[in-house]
Design a protein that fits this description.
single chain; 120 residues; mainly alpha; two-stranded antiparallel ribbon; 4 helices; 2 strands; elongated
Length: 120
């Protein structure tokens, strides 16, 4: 059993060596690309901070949007819920103008998040 395992491992090692030998030029090029990109990141550290900055800007925009959307939603008629859940409220979207405001705000946050994503 151990002899069979050694033979299979030897065949796989030879096959792996053939793959490395046949693709040596591509492997060398990939190593050179990784080396060049690591040198670039080592010299320009601010490239690492830009996505983090835009992430926090997006979170701040979302928090502001959520509070503004809560203000728009509170313009609707709010009634007590008839279920057994204490302090539950129903929100009735009756006015068309408020629905349009909510849709406009949804479009706005999608636009702002897309703008932040593509300016990063």
């Amino acid at each position: 059993m151990m002899l069979a395992t050694c033979i299979i491992a030897g065949i796989l090692a030879v096959a792996f060596a053939c793959c490395i030998f046949c693709g040596f030029k591509s492997l060398k090029m990939a190593i050179d690309v990784i080396d060049a990109s690591s040198d670039y990141l080592a010299t320009t550290k601010r490239v690492i901070l830009v996505p983090v900055l835009y992430f926090f800007l997006t979170i701040i925009c979302l928090l502001i949007w959520i509070s503004a959307f809560a203000c728009v939603a509170s313009m609707n008629e709010i009634t007590a819920d008839t279920n057994l859940i204490p302090q539950a409220k129903d929100l009735e979207w009756k006015d068309g103008k408020i629905k349009l405001m909510a849709l406009f705000m949804l479009f706005g946050i999608l636009w702002i998040c897309a703008w932040l994503k593509y300016t990063a």
